[in-house]
Design a protein that fits this description.
One of its GO terms (biological process) is phosphorelay signal transduction system. This is Chemotaxis protein CheY. Keywords: Phosphoprotein. The chain is an alpha/beta fold. It has a single domain, classed as Rossmann fold, CATH 3.40.50. It is 43% helix and 18% strand. The protein contains 6 helices and 5 strands, in the order βαβαβαβαβαα. The protein has a 5-stranded parallel sheet with strand order 2-1-3-4-5, with helices on both faces. α2 packs parallel to α3 and α3 runs parallel beside α4. The mean pLDDT is 94.
Length: 157
C-alpha cells in the first residue's frame, strides 16, 4: 500500500501539538508529521519523496522565523513533484497581502484563522486527502474509512 503523509508546520510547539491532536483521528490511516520550521518541513518532504512516499497535505502557519508559511507553500507548489499536494494556511497573523499571495502564488486550497474549529480542520483535511488521491490516480479504497465520502461520490459521478 502507498504511504500517504500529512505534514503540519508551526514554530510554536503548543500550536503544533494542538493541530496534531485535532488530526489524530487520521493517525491510523496516514502518517501525520509535525515540523517546527519551513526548512524542517522541506527536508522531510524531500526525504519522503526519496523514499517513494506521497505528501498528500501540507498545513502551515504563516509567521515563522526564516521562511514564512506562504513562502513554504509557494515553494512546494512550484515543485513539480508536489503539484497535487494540497495546501492549507493556518494562521492568526496573515495580512490581506499575505492571504492574496497564499492564494495566487502558493495556490492554497484552504485558509483557517487561529483559533480554528477542530472539527472543521479535520473535515477539510479528510476532503483534501480524498481529492489528492483522485488527482494522483491512486486507489482510494485502502483508506475509505478516513476519507470524505461526498468527495468520492462527486468524483465518481
Amino acid at each position: 500500500m502507498d504511504k500517504l503523509n500529512i505534514i503540519c508546520v508551526d514554530d510554536e510547539r503548543e500550536v503544533l501539538n494542538a493541530v496534531l491532536k485535532d488530526l489524530s483521528p487520521l493517525d491510523a490511516y496516514f502518517q501525520v508529521e509535525g515540523c517546527e520550521s519551513a526548512d524542517e518541513a522541506l527536508a522531510l518532504i524531500d526525504e519522503l519523496d526519496a523514499a517513494g512516499e506521497y505528501v498528500a497535505l501540507l498545513i502551515s502557519d504563516h509567521v515563522m522565523p526564516g521562511k514564512t508559511g506562504v513562502e513554504l507553500l509557494t515553494e512546494v507548489s512550484q515543485d513539480v513533484r508536489f503539484a497535487q499536494t494540497k495546501k492549507v494556511l493556518l494562521t492568526g497573523q496573515a495580512t490581506h497581502q499575505d492571504t492574496i499571495a497564499a492564494i495566487n502564488q502558493a495556490r492554497i486550497e484552504s485558509y483557517f484563522e487561529k483559533p480554528w474549529q477542530a472539527e472543521a480542520l479535520l473535515a477539510r483535511a479528510r476532503s483534501l486527502v480524498t481529492e489528492y488521491l483522485f488527482d494522483k490516480g491512486l486507489d482510494y479504497e485502502p483508506w475509505l474509512d478516513a476519507l470524505d465520502n461526498s468527495v468520492i461520490y462527486r468524483r465518481l459521478t
